[in-house]
Each structure stands twice: as structure tokens, then as C-alpha cells.
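Worked example (supplementary).
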Amino acid sequence: MSLPGLLGCTSARERRLNVFNWSDYVAPETIPNFEKEFGVTVTYQTYESNEEMLAKVMAGNSGWDVVFPTNYMVVPMVESNLLARLDHTKLTELDRLSEDFRRPSWDPELAWGVPYMWGGTGIVYNPSVKPAPAHWADLWSDRYGGRLTMLDDPAEVIGACLLKLGLSLNSTDPAELEKAKQEAIAQKKFVRAYLNAEVQDQLVSGDVLAAQLWATTSMLAQQANPQLQFVYPSEGFALYCDSAAILAESKEQELAHEFVNYLLRPEVSAQIATVTQTATANGAGLVLMPDNLRNNTTLFPPSETIRRGEWFASLPADAHEARDRIWTEIKSA
Amino acid sequence: MRGLLKVYVAAAYLFLYLPLAVLAAFSFNDSRFTVWQGFSFRWYEAAFTNAQLTSGAVTSLLIAVTSTLFATVAGTLCAYALWKRNSRLVTTTLYLSLVTPEIVLGVALLAFYQLVLGRIGSSLGTLTVVLAHITFSLAYVVLVVLARLRTIDRSLEEAALDLGANEWQAFRRVTLPLLLPGVGAAALLAFTISFDDYVITSLVAGVDSETLPMVIYAMARRGIRPEVNAISAVIVTVLGTLILVSERWNRT
Amino acid sequence: MNGLRRLFLAPAAVILVLLYGIPLAIVAAYSVLRRGAYGGVDAALTPYNFARLADALYLTILARSFLLAAAATLLCLLLAFPLAWFISKAGPRKHLYLSLVVLPFWTSMLICMYSWMFLLRDTGLVNTILLSLGWISEPLPLLYNYGAVLVGLVYNYLPFMVLPIFAALERLDPNLLEASADLGAKPWTTLRRVVLPLCAPGVRAGAVLVFVPSLGDYLTPDLLGGGRTIMIGNLIQNQFTASRDYPFGAAVSLALMSVVMLLLWQLLKHDKDPLL
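After joint prediction of all chains, the assembly is encoded as:
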């Protein structure tokens, strides 16, 4: 490592791109192939939650170039001047996106992020659990012997509680949020822990019998333990879409655009989605995926199921603070 | 009674070493899971060929060596000055930095860096990590060196001064050689603290400074990774041996 | 001498002022400022952060952290004392024994925490052994609760209690113990009325060195507590990362530091040099 490198300066000759992504969101060949083709080095690190990512980039001088915010994070990040406006002339593969993601509600012009992968949140469970859970309400029960986990994510947990009460996932009404909070606190005695993707391992080994988990992560767990089952709860479920976005602070805007464009290539997208078992927002990539994944109802639920889903929406700043406090109250109850 | 004490002590050491023993044992397990399936070196192979782990180890090493160097020099000089004549202010501040919870020091440095770096257009990186490590290692170095100094006879320096040496010569040619084992122990301590640190490092690290503990944290969060066990076993063995050797040397 | 001494003190002084004093001062400043819209800090003075801290929710977190840290300290004391006693009476190999106590700590807290998670899980070693011995029929929930956090805290900070107590025992004059026995005191009485009072400085130092880090530890409750338990350390870490509320996090940090400084002041009042 050179001394300038040690001091955090970038050398003019060695082009470097810094990508910060969710874990399990690229195939093993994705990054090396990009590095070879464009003759650059990529620093690739991962995070487990939006909050973790935002904490790093918030100050505006984190050093990252490309990040992958979930759809409801895009607007807050734009309002905090964290994202760079996308230059569509550099994104030649943009028309590869599926119809549904060409004009998404959170960013109709696709000015700030390119939809990357989408999915839903449901319940993954071990078939030894009887009766099998089919509603969020089923997670408020001790049939799991305490071997139940929920996501370590305020939006998801509060969302599940709201859905259980028949309310909207994105509610900002204080009374409704208060009720959701009470539900979450009541649930705590059945919950072993709040874990994100790290719960996979315990699902596979049987330490955990049921978990609130994203469809894609559940697919990975099912790969390791085919007996596990996944269900989208009857009361409704959260839909999210992670987009590739470029940070305003990035000094490699050009290269970052090349990378985002590279991710849009059908074969690249298909490879990633196949290896990571995710639903890609890339229509052209979708057709290249193997049949068993394309027809998989967990990743690509049929329309009757999708209708129960609700997209996460961007919330105003004070709503964020209210939910934040509720989350602290839930965690410390 | 004596026998009971021995049983208790054995149990206490078992408690202390159980996690490490288990870690080592399963690093040789020929399977990814808890069930024992035979002895194997495959996870060691996997660990050393894992690019993330090796680059993390190199980064950690670099940071540890740099911060140890500066912390040891600054700390040794400081300990010597305090030995000559104590300063309540300095000692108290050092004790304070010793007991300050890591999270508080971490967030304070983060806030400081973001303010300062924002002004000069730079970002978190290896330098910010090194500076943080020097800060929290300092008190430990001073403590160890001071302990060693307390075992050195003051009159030796006085004799040197009487014989015409100046203060610097007295320090360098009389005290310092006697001090070396203590300095060595302090340096090793600073090195291990720096190498192992997670909390403060994760807060102030930049894009290019992913240290080994950070890699381990990220990997182990995702589940049992025997490669992590393997590399942990290596670290524990190497550092452990160094510490034991250093302790021996410091006792002379 | 003064010139050389000042020169020697300079590097350490610069480090302490620039990288310790100033950052803490910044935290103190943030604690009275207002949070920006989506994070960050607005230059507007407000006592809101401290007022918020006085809320029952946060006071509970503080209280719970105190209790847990106190429990860990007490356990450490009970476990460390016999161990330190044994080591100090172990003759020529006492320093080896002492190094062996300290070794796990210096080789990596993070790795040891993961080992404990591995040991305490439902399918972990402890449960597997208990099940195969037939002592239990269902795995015990050993992980992701306060018990597990307590085990973690004790494991991490035990050496900090052993070392000062060992040092205090080393300074103990064996003649005093003999004299006590000669005067007819039973071993237990000697322990209670001669040894313990003389070891008080070591115990005090050990108590502070275990209590304070336990109070501010966020990694142990995070990993071993399964995200179910919020302690002061988690609260602070949260504010500076996920919640992006620097001012409130600063207020909590300041509250924690006040406790730390109070304890340290008490300790240094009794004992000018607690560790040496």
C-alpha cells in the first residue's frame, strides 16, 4: 500500500470504484468480470440494513461511489443531497428494465436510482411447526417454543404489526403507530431475537423454527435446507425494491455510471439473480433465468398474491423520528 | 479446602479457555456443521486463499504496526517524564482515557473526523483509524512502561549525571536499556489492542480500511464460517505466543 | 530537567488534547444542539436532548445497564478473588498463571464472543452435551437473553478484576496472616477482617475497571443479546449510526461519561495509583 494510499488520496493512474451493497447481492464473477473488462479495481463491501449504509454515507465524505438504497430511502437521501442525478445518456442499457420498474412511484423519472432487485417480506418456517403459519397473527403464538425471530429492521417489524392490525404499512398516524408498538411489545415474549440475513444459518440448523424474512434470503436458506417453507401472509406483506444509486460525493461519476450500466446487462443481471436467488427488476435478464426460478412463486408471486403486497413509501422526516422512538421502545421493553 | 480451591481454579481456567478450545477444535473439523466429520486443514487453506480475509489481515497488520510505533514512542517518553516528576493532570487524563467506554471514544472521534474532514475535503480512511488506535493505546503503554520504571533504581541516573552526563544521555544510555523489556511489552500490548479492535475501528474506518475484525464481524454475522475459526485460531496462537514470550522477557 | 521533561510529555499531550479532549468537547457541544432534518446537526441550542433523556424509556435503559454492569462486577469479584489468591500463592509459576488468565482477553474479544454464540446456541456444544447426557430433554435457551450477556461480560472483563486483586495480594504481608492465626482467628475470620480490608484498593480498582466498560459495552449485548436488549452502549451506537441523531447520542454519551468520571474521581481520591 503506497503512502498516498495510506493517507486516503487517490492515485491518478489506478482507477478505483467503491461499491457498497447488500450482502448476497452479486455473483462471484460479477465484480471480477467488471474489473477485467474496464481495467479498474473495485472495493466491494457489504451491509445488512439501510440504516447501516446511511450511517456511513450521511456525512457526505464516506468515500463510497455506488450504494443500493431501498426504494423508501431514495427520497430522504435526495433531500439530504446525498445522491447524484443519473445521466441517462450514459445508461444505454436502461431499457432492459421490466415494464413495472420503468416509472416507479418513488422515482418516476428514474433520476436517482436504477431498480436492481425487488422482493417481498414473508414468513419462512420449519415444517415441524404445526399448524403452519399463514398470517402475521400466527407469529404471536408460542407454538415455536420461543424459536421465532423477527427482522432487525424498524420498517419491517412495525410494518408487520400494522398489517396484522389491518392498517397500512406506511401509516404515519400516531394512534395507529401506538397500537402497532403495543403489538410488537406483546410479541416480544415469543421472539428469540431480532436478526436479519444472519438468521439463515440458524434456520438451516433448526435453532430457529420460524422467522420474518425477505423472500430472497429465505430462498437461500431453502437451498441449504429444502424442507423449509415460505409464505406470504394473508393480511398483506411489504414489497421493496433496491436500486443502484450513485453518491453525489463520488469522484468517479463516469465509472460509477459504467458500473450501473454493466449491472443492467441482461446476462449480468440474470447471473446475479440466479446465484443469489432474487427477483430482478431487469426484464431482459429475467428471461435468461432458469425456469425453476422464473416460475418460483416465492420470488415471483402470482398476481393474486402480489395484490396483497404494499410497497414501502418514503416517509416525512418527523414520521421517521416517531418510528425511531417506537423502535427504541420496542427494543428496550 | 485447598483441594476445593484447586478444583475451582481448574474450572475457572476451563471457563476462560473453553471458547478458544472449541474454536480451534472446529477449525479442524472436516465439515461446515457442528457434527464432527474428521480432521482436516481445508478451512486453513480456505482462510488463506480468501481474498477478503487476507486483505483484512494485511490492513490490520499495517495499521497495528503504525499505531504501535507512534503510541509506544509517545507513551514511553511520557512515562519517563511522569516517573521523573508526576503530573496529576496528565495522569488523570490518561486514567480517564483508559476507562472511557470504547463506544464513547469511537463516536467522539467520528464526530471530530466528520467535522474536520468535511472542511478539508477528505474522507475517513486508514489514517483516521491509525490516529484512533494511537489514542486508545497510549494509556496502556504509559502504564506498562511506568510499571517497569518503578523497578529501576533512580540513583543510577543520578550517578550518571554526577559523572557528567546530561539528561538526555542519562536517559538514553542508562535508563532506556533497562527499560527495553517494558517497552517491548508495552509495544506488544499496543499491537494486540490495535489488531483486535472492532468497536472504534468500525466507526471511523473508511472505504479502504477494512480490518480483519471488521471482516470477521461481517462474515460471522452471516453464520458459521469455519474459515473464520481457522484464521482466529492462527491469530490466537501467534499473539498468545508473543504475549507469553514478552511476559517472560519483561520479568528479567 | 524541565525542558527535556516538557519535550517528552509533548507527544502524549498533543495526542490527548487533539484526539481525546477535543473530540469529547465536540460531543459535549453536540449534546446541546438540535438534530438536523434527516440527520446531522443544526447550530441551534436546545436542552431538548437532555430533557428527552429524562424520559422513563431511556431511564429504564440506563437503570438496566447499571444493574447488568453491577451484576457482572459482583460476579467478577466473586470469581476473581479465589483465582487471584491461588495465583499469588502459586510460587515460581505465578506469573505464568497470571499471563494465562489475561491471554484470552488480549487475543480478541470479538472472536471469543462468536465462540460463545457457537457454544450457547440451541444446537451448540453446551446443549448438545447436556442432551446427550440425558440431563435435559429440550435444548435450553442459553443464547439471546440477559444471562448470555452476563456470561459475555464476565468473560471479557474477568482479567481486569484478577490483575488488581493479585497486585493487592502481592503487597500483603504474610506476617499479618500469621499474626491473625496466632491470635486465634479462624481462616474465614482472617479472610474477612484482615485480608479483605487490606485488599480493598485492589478490589476498588477492579470494580471500576469491570463496571465502566460493562456499562458502555455494546458489542456483547448486540451479539449475545440478539438485538432484544438495548443497553446504554447500544443506544449511543444507534444514535450515531442507524438513527442518525448525533445530539441525542451525545447527550447519552455525556451522561455515561459523568458516571465514569464520578467513579474515577472516587477511586483516585482513595488511591493515588490504583494500578501500580
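Two points are worth noting when inspecting this output. Confidence is low (pLDDT under 50) at residues 1-12 of chain A. Chain A touches chain B at residues 1, 5-9, 18, 23, 43, 45-46, 48, 59-64, 197-198, 200-202, 205, 249 (CB under 8 Å).
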